[in-house]
Amino acid sequence: MSSPSSRQVDSPGQALDQVVDQAVYDLLVIDDDQSAIGLVTDILSLEKFRVHGAADAHAGLDLISRLRPPLVLLDLVLPGVSGMDLLKRILAFDPSIDVILVTGHYSMESAVEAIQKGAYDYLAKPLQVDRFLQKLGKWRGDASARLRTGMLEAELAQACQFEGIVGRSPSMLDVFSKIRRIAPHFQTALVTGESGTGKESVAKALHSLSPYSTGPFVVCNCAAIPENLFESELFGHSQGAFTGATREKVGFVESAQGGTLFLDEIGEIPLAAQAKLLRLLQNSEIQRVGTSRTKQVDLRIVAATNRDLRRLVDENRLREDLYYRLSMIEVGLPKLADRKEDLPLLQRHFLDRFASRYGKQHLNLTRRVQAVLANHNWAGNIRELENVLSYCCMMAEGEQIDIRDLPDYLQKQVRQDIAEGDDLLVPMRTMELRHLQRVLAHVNGNRGKAAEILGISRTTIYRLLEEQSNLEEQTEK
Ligand SMILES: Nc1ncnc2c1ncn2[C@@H]1O[C@H](COP(=O)(O)OP(=O)(O)OP(=O)(O)O)[C@@H](O)[C@H]1O
Ligand SMILES: [Mg+2]
Fold it and tell me: Residues near ligand 1 with C-beta < 6 Å?
């Protein structure tokens, strides 16, 4: 039997609509005329607004910092301060606040100036009830749309995260499902994928969903250890095991006891150490360098690589038996370029993270920037996206991140795309002339060489150059 409340709300969408419809917004009126504040309170007594009043700039700013009202009704003429200045200060404090300026002396010029300075709207005094309610109705419509989008985005971002890994593309949903099934049982797992695709994040997810999650997660980057120290770093050594081994050492494996050892860049493991690693994977035992005793260990191992391990086997750089042992349980990560449908979610995820890290407002990407990011090839995958958005958030001055906030290499790409776009829309003859110029520049103006490369006669080159200079003359005129 369904409860009355479950009958009222049929779908999550309807629940969201209800929240949006029933939202009550704070409205701050800054006006030295107490009766103006009273009037607004009366007019809005039946509307979904909570009206607050402030008689001067100081009290107004104080209430703004405490209440964060989404809407402010600001008198243009206040004692000791101009409404325009106060508008600037309010927007500097929080650009997301909508300010409606109210003035007794309505003029078109100051209305335009107010809007240019960032006011949401401009109204004449005395307030005409109908007109005022109409404006607030419009504002409420905008605010509801913003609230709805924000809630949907947050809901979506929440739903499309798995242990901090964001994605909802079919390939990422596969990855999530694999992790969920593998984590409780695996002893050894291999995570593959290009650089920056999230291999370490997957390793951490495997760890935190495994029965060993209360133990440590130890990272060992195989590429960073000198070949001659590899065994002792991984398995430890006894005192005096070799010159310089002045003290006993616990290796990575032992320090990950009861937890997970993440062997990053496993493709770089020296051949000499591979047999010992295989023994660890097969028998859970290790031998410290310089001792003959073996020791049982209890841990899980996640290895990762961005290399083709099969190829390393063919090149005799990886033992085949180790390869089979490692690759039995494999989680392969897709390139970002192959799952661009995840871009909007990932962008939101990183924008929120960096906005809060750098103490900024809610940040958004302009449509132009979204297009640039969607067209980029993302060779560095999620790490590159993360770095780009971190940079953009640092550079952003307002709420919107635009082309000028992008790292130089992406801005350069934009300029190049525009230039190439220009190339698309020119007549064939112009392209020929441009190509000739490029070839001439390449051969330092040597027309004989240019003629050879282009497969045309020198006479044709002269003719083309003449044509070009005629064209240039015409354009100058
Ligand atoms: N799906 C994802 N959602 C959110 N953040 C992600 C995702 N994948 C990766 N990241 C983030 O991107 C960065 C790179 O991820 P990670 O270090 O796991 O990649 P990697 O494959 O190990 O890279 P490399 O090969 O360069 O070592 C990290 O900061 C990580 O938190
Ligand atoms: Mg990594």
Answer: 165-167, 193, 195-201, 306, 346, 349, 382-383, 386
State the virtual CA torsion across 472, 475, 476, 477 in degrees, nearest 10. Answer: 130
Q: How far apart are CA 110 and CA 125, in angstroms?
A: 14
Are residues 314 and 302 in contact, defined by beta-carbon separation less than 8 angstroms? no
Residue to mutate, 382, 386, 387, ligand 1, most ligand atoms under 8 Å from C-beta: 382
Cβ atoms of residues 267 and 312 within 8 Å: yes
310 and 215 fall within a common domain = yes
CATH number at residue 29: 3.40.50.2300
Under DSSP, the state recorded for 229 is: G
Which stretches does DSSP call E strand in 292-405? 295-296, 300-305, 330-332, 364-365, 400-401
What is the spatial distance between Cα 74 and Cα 91, in angstroms, rounded to a whole number?
Answer: 12
Which three-class secondary structure state does DSSP give residue 268? helix
Intervals of the chain under pLDDT 50: 1-10
In a domain, 7, yes or no: no
Angle formed by the axes of helices 129-159 and 343-357, to 10°? 110
The token pair that represents 157 in the structure block = 């971002």
CA distance 269 to 427: 57
Which residue range forms the structural domain that includes residue 383?
336-421
pLDDT tens-digit readout, 430-461? 778 888 888 888 888 888 889 888 989 888 98
Distance from the alpha carbon of residue 15 to the mean position of ligand 1, in angstroms:
35
The answer to whether 118 and 101 have CB atoms below 8 angstroms apart is no
Q: Which atom of ligand 1 is found nearest the CA of 349? A: 4
Mutate to test the pocket of ligand 1, among 173, 199, 201 (most ligand atoms within 8 A of CB): 201
Q: Contact 176/367 with Cβ under 8 angstroms?
A: no
pTM listed for this prediction: 0.63
Nearest ligand 1 atom to the CA of 304 is 22
Task: Tell whether 189 and 310 lie within a shared domain.
Answer: yes
